[in-house]
Amino acid sequence: ASADSEMAVFGEAAPFLRKSEKERIEAQNKPFDAKTSVFVAHPKESFVKGTIQSRESGKVTVKTEAGEVFPMNPPKYDKIEDMAMMTHLH
């Protein structure tokens, strides 16, 4: 079965559940550093993306809103069907 026929059961929602081939290729080629890309807990948005600026004596400086820091998955995992393939689960 092709990817399109698998997604047909979701009707109008299908485009929101899986990236297009073009978007998947762009995400795989997007620069990503697993050591500096993180999610930061945010009181209103749940989590926001952040980039670690520095690490010193157990303290991390992140470029974004303040909060608890969690590792972020590479863009190629956006909308992935099998969450077992993800590097980090939150």
Structure description:
The protein has 90 residues and is of the alpha+beta class. The protein folds into two domains: 30 residues, no CATH class; 47 residues, SH3 type barrels. Helices cover 20% and strands 28% of the residues. It is built from three helices and four strands. It has a four-stranded antiparallel sheet, with no helix packed on it. Strand 2 and strand 3 form a beta hairpin. The radius of gyration is 16 Å and the shape is elongated. It starts with a helix and ends in a 19-residue tail after the last strand.
Task: Describe this protein with a few key phrases.
elongated; motor protein; about 90 residues; alpha+beta; MYH2 protein; about 30% strand; SH3 type barrels; 2 domains; four-stranded antiparallel sheet; single chain
Q: Total domains, how many?
A: 2
* End-to-end Cα distance: 32 Å
What proportion strand? 25-35%
- Report the major sheet: 4 strands, antiparallel
Order of helices and strands: HHHEEEE
Give the overall shape.
elongated
Q: In CATH, what is the class of the largest domain?
A: Mainly Beta
Rg measurement, Å = 16 Å
Average pLDDT rating: 79
Count of helices? Answer: 3
For the largest sheet, list the strands in their spatial order.
3-2-1-4
- Structural class determined from secondary elements: alpha+beta
The CATH architecture assignment of the largest domain turns out to be Roll
Roughly what percent helix?
Answer: 10-25%
